[in-house]
Amino acid sequence: MTRRGLRCDPMCDLIVNSNVVGELASEVLGRGGDFCLGVHGRSMLPFVRHGARLTVKGVAPEALRVGDIVLYRSEGRLLAHRIVNVENSGTQERVYARGDAFYGRPDAVLPGQILGLVVRVTHGSRTMDLRSTLWRILGRAWIAATPVSQACLGVALKARNRLRRLSRRLSGQTSGATHREPDS
Predict the structure, then answer these.
(1) What is the 3-state secondary structure (H, E, C) of 90-121?
(2) What Å distances lie between residue 131 and 21, 63, 139, 143, 150, CA to CA?
(3) With helix as H, strand as E and coil as C, how does the chain read?
(4) Can you tell me the distance from the alpha carbon of 152 to that of 145, in angstroms, rounded to the nearest whole number?
(5) What is the DSSP letter of 112?
(6) Do 155 and 113 contact (CB within 8 A), yes or no?
(7) pTM across the whole model
(8) What is the pLDDT of residue 182?
(9) Residue 1 above 50 pLDDT?
């Protein structure tokens, strides 16, 4: 089955764009179906790229673990981010989720906001089963490496900004700017 040039996952009950409201996802997942949607954005780089397809299954909040990627509602949007912490205050469990490309404060997500667990990511012809041991280990390793990757990202951003400034200066010198000799 093909839709707009994409190979659809035959295991999915429904294929939708990411702008579809969360109620539709809730209904499909609540019926025990799989929910597939396209990724629009880069918050989950390097593991999930813009244009990838996610397959989401319903999940009980108590089954969620650090490293899992969940689909949840936040301020009227659907987000798929990795769980970086699970907190149980006795009366209410809460997970903290953040995109792999973000290093700021994670979102506090209540069980009622969670629509499901991302179980599969498809990039073109490649499919990653996120329930496999390898992907679970990689997810936890990515979270553990966050302080190191934050430092590396900071250095990379500073270097990029310096290179851009240098490039602008050099292009200003070579783009028709003429050198004038001072009058004597």
Answers:
(1) CCCEEEEEECCCCCCCCEEECHHHEEEEEEEE
(2) 26, 12, 11, 17, 26
(3) CEECCEECCCCCCEEECCCCCHHHHHHHHHCCCCEEEECCCCCCCCCCCCCCEEEEECCCHHHCCCCCEEEEEECCEEEEEEEEEEEECCCCEEEEEECCCCCCCCEEECHHHEEEEEEEEEECCEEEECCCHHHHHHHHHHHHCHHHHHHHHHHHHHHHHHHHHHHHHHHHHHCCCCCCCCCC
(4) 11
(5) G
(6) no
(7) 0.68
(8) 55
(9) no
Of 78, 83, 65, the C-alpha closest to 115 is: 78
**What is the pLDDT at residue 112?**
85
Mean pLDDT of 158-174: 82
* Predicted local distance difference test score (pLDDT) of residue 96: 92
Model confidence at 122, pLDDT cuts 50, 70, 90, reads very high
**Separation CA 78–CA 71 (nearest Å):** 7
DSSP code, position 95: E
